[in-house]
């Protein structure tokens, strides 16, 4: 197996953190280019969805979408469980991971793609045709990110992690959304969100989130 990454992108990072938490080792290939924030022509020629991450199996089968990859890997490497150990746990984790994806990763994408100069004409991912940025979506993306943080601050409460005392894929997705937005879009956690801040600092200290520079 091998994984296609794009350094700096939050969705591949979700899988990279998952791999480290599971202690799964595999080749990781950077699908980007040295000339600007673009996927390589070679990668685009072989991957019609024009998105990362992609897990390629030894027989050539390709699995896209971060959580689809994680579910596949969880099924063949069940320990430690990051997606729940029973039906109720799996449902709760999936629910909050989905919210982190839609509301956190979604907000980060809306904010970033409509503001960064390198993505002029590339307002939506996975499209070959030119799609212009919409400046009004920058403000909305920032507001959505604040709503995401406030919702997850309330959910975390006094718990160590988002759904329980255990670290799960819900934490991975929420962390990648916040970390990317903080580092690249300069969005800060509101001072009032003390639960989220505590959680974010704890996850930031995990060895699995460190990236090679």
Structural notes for this entry:
The chain is α+β, with helices and mostly antiparallel strands. Helix content is about 50%, strand content about 5%. The chain has 7 helices and 4 strands. Strand 3 and strand 4 (about 60-65) form a beta hairpin. Helix 1 runs parallel beside helix 3 (about 65-75) and helix 5 packs across helix 7. The two termini are about 25 Å apart. The model has no long low-confidence stretch (mean pLDDT about 95).
Large-scale geometry: globular
The helix-strand sequence is EHEHEEHHHHH
The name of the CATH architecture of the largest domain is: Up-down Bundle
- Cα-atom Rg, whole angstroms? 17 Å
CATH topology of the largest domain: Glutathione S-transferase Yfyf (Class Pi), Chain A, domain 2
Proportion in β-strands:
5-15%
Main sheet, how many strands, which sense, barrel? 4 strands, mixed
The overall pLDDT average reads: 94
Number of domain modules: 2
Helix and strand content put the structural class at alpha+beta
Helix share bin: 40-55%
Number of helices: 7
Descriptive tags:
4 strands; 213 residues; 50% helix; alpha+beta; 2 domains; Glutathione S-transferase Yfyf (Class Pi), Chain A, domain 2; 6% strand
């Amino acid at each position: 197996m091998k994984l296609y990454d794009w350094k700096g992108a939050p969705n591949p990072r979700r899988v990279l953190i998952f791999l480290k938490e599971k202690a799964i080792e595999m080749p990781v290939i950077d699908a980007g280019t040295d000339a600007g924030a673009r996927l390589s022509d070679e990668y685009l020629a072989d991957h019609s969805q024009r998105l990362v991450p992609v897990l390629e199996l030894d027989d050539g089968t390709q699995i896209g979408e971060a959580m689809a990859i994680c579910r596949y890997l969880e099924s063949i490497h069940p320990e430690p469980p990051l997606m729940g150990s029973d039906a109720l746990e799996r449902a709760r984790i999936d629910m909050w991971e989905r919210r982190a994806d839609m509301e956190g990763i979604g907000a980060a994408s809306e904010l970033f793609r409509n503001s960064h100069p390198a993505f002029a004409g590339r307002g939506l991912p996975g499209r070959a045709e030119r799609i212009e940025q919409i400046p009004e979506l920058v403000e909305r993306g920032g507001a959505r990110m604040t709503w995401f943080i406030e919702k997850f601050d309330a959910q975390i409460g006094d718990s160590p992690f988002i759904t329980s005392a255990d670290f799960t894929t819900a934490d991975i997705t929420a962390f990648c959304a916040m970390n990317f937005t903080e580092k690249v879009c300069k969005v800060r956690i509101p001072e009032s969100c003390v639960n989220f801040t505590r959680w974010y600092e704890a996850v930031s200290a995990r060895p699995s989130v460190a990236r090679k520079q």
